[in-house]
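Summary for the steering committee. One of the milestones for this cycle was to obtain a three-dimensional model of the protein with glycine bound, which we needed before selecting residues for the alanine scan. The sequence and ligand used are listed below.
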Amino acid sequence: MVGSGGREHALAWKIAQSPRLEELHAAPGNPGIAQLGSCHPVLAEDGDGVLALARSLRVDLVVVGPEAPLVAGLADRLRRGGVPVFGPSAAAARIEGSKAFSKEVLDRAGVPTARALPIASPPCVVKSDGLATGKGVFVCLDDDELQAALAEVRTLGTRFLFEELLEGQELSVFAVCDGRRALPLAAARDFKRARDGDAGPNTGGMGAFSPVPESPLLERLVAEIHRPVLAELASRGAPFSGLLYAGLMLTADGPRVLEFNCRFGDPETQAVLPLISSDMLPVIAEAAAGDLGSTPIELSDDTAVTVVVAAKDYPASGDAGSPITGIEEATKLGALVFHAGTAERDHTLVTSGGRILSVTGVGRDLAAARELAYAAVERISFPGARYRRDIGG
Ligand code: AMP
Ligand code: GLY
């Protein structure tokens, strides 16, 4: 497992339940993952280090969590080194790495998306072209917001583009892909804004729930969105294998793509994986081998709600070294606590990042899942701990 966030902890937790798993190793992992396998001090961005580690451990499969190493070519490097990997090549990861490339692929594939605007005029959206961990998008309702967005996006130093503002509810749709085929996994709703009532700046995500009752049929969304994009990428010599994540707006005129991501969503994964009742490891291994077979993905009838507990000033800045308490009490209630930005210092668990923990409650319906997630969150504390109170509300 490559990565160190809540998404990687959830993936490790799910994979660790597989009877097919022999050993689990992480680079670099986190204190939560360390309870499930061995963590090695190799950063996800260190391509040489990850390849050397994978070879020395003779691993059968590498699962890459975050986007930055994928966009930088980690999967290509591992494959060239003879290591099977779940995750796209750099050429296919451009679907996330470049918004301009993504728009071009969508247009060619005939998949509906927000219209590009030649000039900015509010209401509109300003997007930085490169990776920005969810922080490079500015929704501008009036001219003041537009001027502020332009000033900010210029400091990022990347190209930027403008598009029409779409209105509706958002939906994240995950599919496991093997280059040609796409297997629907689940749909989730992500809460991107920092504060209650969708106020404050965009973040990597402050919470999520799954499934989403008003979602159109998953099979249909994947047929109309993921598969045409897979075919277009394959025809460009960049077949996509790994997890293809479509971020959609459910508008009055139907679903429109806001973005594609080349990996599992964080924190959506922490809500989606606890609902999968079947073994995920064979599906991931088959996708990595370019041959998704007939292994089905089975989902329970439950609902999951994930609440992110973040540092006081996230997304502007994170926190480091503050002791964290209450995880055991939260877990005793029946919630799942995934480590996202934690570290261990002198046998004490401390903060180390912006999003510190993701807490998932699973229940028979949204209300039950939400109640459990929040009861668990209330047990957890560290100086400045902050979370949204309206996830799944
Ligand atoms: P992206 O990184 O492109 O998904 O953008 C991050 C967030 O910005 C999305 O999840 C939406 O909340 C918002 N967003 C992006 N594009 C648009 C758009 N065209 N209209 C409305 N909101 C948008
Ligand atoms: N939660 C949004 C993302 O993973 O991009």
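Key point for the committee: The chain has four domains: 2-91, 115-164, 170-288, 303-377.
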